[in-house]
Structures are given as C-alpha cells and as structure tokens.
Specification:
Blueprint lengths: L1 E4 L10 H13 L6 E4 L9 H9 L2 E8 L5 E8 L5 E5 H5 L17 H11 L5 E5 L10 H6 L3 E3 L20 E3 L1 H6 L4 E5 L12 H5 L7 H22 L11 H9 L5 E4 L1 H8 L2 H5 L4 E4 L3 E2 L8 H10 L5 E5 L1 E2 L13 E4 L7 H6 L1 H16 L3
Parallel strand pairs: 1-2, 1-11, 5-6, 6-9, 9-10, 11-13, 12-14, 13-15
Antiparallel strand pairs: 3-4, 4-5, 7-8
C-alpha cells in the first residue's frame, strides 16, 4: 500500500514536515510495511520557505536587510536542494510583524528589504525565484524592492531619489531607468505566489482594500491610491508596461504590479506553484491513499488553500483523499465538493488553546492511527 502524506503546516504549532512526520508515526503503528511518501506543502504564504526547503532537501539562509521602516534586521530565504531555485517570503523582510501597532503607516513603509533579500539570493547564482508576497506592511507598488535591485527613480529636478521609496513619495517620481535591473534579471525567471486578483488602483485596488489593514486612515488611502496611479502612469510612459490593470497587480500593496516590470515574471496561485515545484502529481499517480491537512478547515479552505490543491491533484488520478486537521468550523463541509473525501479533526478533548497547540503532535499521531485502522477495512 502506498500512501502520500502532503499537509500544510499547523500555524503556531507544527511545520508541514512535523505534521507529516506525526501522521506517518500514527500510520505505521497499524501499517508498518506501507510505502509512505511525505511531501511538506504550503500555499505560497507563511511557511512556504520551510516547506519547500524540507521537500527539496534545500538550505535556509539568513541575511541582514531593512525592515519596512528602515531598521536593519535579520531575514531568511531558502534555496532548493539543486541550488537552482530561491524561495523568498516578502513578509520575512517587509512584513507587518516588523512594525509596532502605533507606527503602522503605509505612507512611510518601504519594500526595500524584500529587494535586498532577493539580491542575496541572486548572489548565490539561482536562476529561478519563487516569491510569496503575503503579509506585507507596505503600499509602495514594489518600488522600494525594485530600487534595492538597481532600478533608478528620478524626481522632477532630474535628481536620483536616494531615500528608500515608500508609498508616500511615489508622486515624486518623474522618470525611471530600469536598464540595470533588466540586465540583472536576464535569464532569471520569477514565479509570484499571488492569490488575489485586485488591480493596482481604484475601489478594488491595493490602497482601498488592503492599506487599512496596514494602518492607513481614509485620508491616507486616498493619498496612497493617487500616488499609485501616478506611479503606474510613469511606468507605462517609461517602460511601456501596464502595471495598473492586470489581475493581481494590487496584491501586497502593489508588489504584484511592481514585479510585472521584470522580464520573466508570472503571477500564479501559490499552492499551484508549490504543487508544481514538489512534483506532487508524479508521487500521487500510483498511490492508494492521499492524506493532507491544515490547522483549521472551513469554507475559506476552498480559496487557494493547500488541502484543496492536493485534493484536486489527487482526483486527476481518482485517488481517495483524507484530510487530518487541527480543528473544524461548522461551514467546513463545502470541502467535500472539492475533492476531499473525509475529514478528521485531531482534538480529542476540551483543552485551552495553548494546550491544544502543545498537544498537536500526539493528537495527530492518534488520529492517523485511527485513519490507518479504517484503511485496513478497505
């Protein structure tokens, strides 16, 4: 019997690999001779670097970068086992968690540190970059990131802007020179994990929809949106590139749009990027069972989350899919319409949240053991 275990992490509790290990332990108590393949998964958000390092036997690297307000901090990125691909999470350098609640102001925050993180990866000779862009504190259209990578922005006095570009000074940009950055990215492909389809500007744009979560007042939102419109106009004028209207250009404070100025960039579903990177379909093709999971399953799980991505892949081969999850919300049953055949929550008794998180491994093992007993009945 071949069983593929492909879970996401259980947030604040266990990494995807630790989840897979616990499930394997439970299964082997009943099925000691089963052929078990463990593939740590992610959806392009938090945990993607760790999952893809684990899945490809890669390495974790740390470098010093600027946080959203310019303070020097240590941030991480991953490199795949074959040294070909870098995995970068924008939040590691430019995440909201770096900025204290009373200092959150997307007029002042910059994605410069994300550019430094990407540059550190390029210095290692990678040819492919997977970039997750969730959880950012910025609304600068990715201009700070591009600036760190060599893009030049000039003001109306034809002077090079040397301060780190933030959402509040995009209106100062009069022209751009991307010759250095375009040369740097010759032969470099970039896949951006992007699961929103918002445009850059307007009522569904980056500023209106996401900036309030980053500390923007209604007045700030209006300024930020106007500045992004100006920025998009300058980019169109100088590079003949539309960054305003493509679906996803408004993701991560306009980072999606900014990245479209690079030569070989694709905005894709985060979970699809991971599925392709770990070659999940090849592992599932001859499996008897597929087990996936996440910390909490609910109706939102069908919107680009790992278990549904795994399930849809499995259903291409007609494989049964079991989800082992930390907890369930009452609206979870919609997942049965998207390839999940059975769902097992791991909580065995009424515990406090800290106790539940602490007991996750043992609860996973126990639940997987019971799942294995059911498999023997098949």
């Amino acid at each position: 019997m071949k069983i593929v275990i492909a879970p996401d992490s259980f947030k604040e509790s266990l990494s995807a690999l630790a989840v897979a290990d616990a499930i394997e332990t439970g299964l082997r108590r009943v099925l000691p001779d089963a052929h078990i393949v463990k593939i740590p998964m992610a959806d392009g958000g938090e945990g993607t670097v760790q999952s893809l390092i684990d899945a490809t036997q890669g390495t974790l690297h740390t470098t010093e970068v600027s946080d959203p307000l310019g303070k020097r901090v240590a941030a991480f990125f991953g490199v795949s086992g074959d040294q070909h691909t870098a995995i970068v999470e924008m939040a590691a350098a430019s995440g909201l968690h770096w900025v204290d609640l009373d200092k959150r102001n997307p007029l002042k925050t910059s994605s410069y540190g994300t550019g430094e993180l990407i540059q550190a990866a390029l210095n290692l000779g990678v040819k492919h970059i997977i970039l997750g862009i969730g959880g950012s504190a910025t609304n600068d259209g990715g201009a700070g990131m591009l600036q760190a990578l060599g893009a030049q922005f000039f003001n109306y006095h034809n002077q090079l802007i040397t301060e780190k570009i933030s959402g509040g000074i995009l209106d100062q940009i009069a022209r751009v020179d991307f010759s250095i950055i375009h040369q740097k990215f010759k032969g470099i492909s970039v896949e951006v994990a992007c699961d929103v389809n918002n445009p850059l500007c307007g009522e569904r744009g980056a500023s209106a929809i996401f900036a309030p979560q980053k500390g923007a007042t209604p007045n700030m939102v209006a300024i930020l949106d106007k500045n992004l419109q100006h920025y998009a106009h300058i980019i169109q004028q100088n590079l003949n590139t539309d960054i305003a209207t493509p679906a996803g250009s408004g993701a991560a404070g306009g980072m999606g749009g900014g990245l479209l100025t690079l030569p070989h960039v694709q905005l894709k579903s985060g979970v699809q990027i991971v599925l392709d990177t770990v070659c999940l379909a090849e592992h599932i093709a001859d499996a008897d069972f597929v087990i996936t999971g996440e910390g909490r399953m609910d109706a939102q799980s069908i919107a680009g989350k790992t278990p549904i991505g795994v399930a849809r892949t499995a259903k291409q081969f007609g494989k049964p899919v079991i989800a082992i999850v930390g907890s369930l919300r009452t609206d979870y049953e919609v997942v049965y319409q998207h390839g999940i055949d059975a769902v097992f929550p791991i909580i065995r008794q009424l515990d406090t949240l800290p106790e539940t998180l602490a007991n996750a491994r043992e609860n996973l093992i126990s639940t997987a053991q019971n799942v294995a007993k059911l498999m023997t009945l098949a």
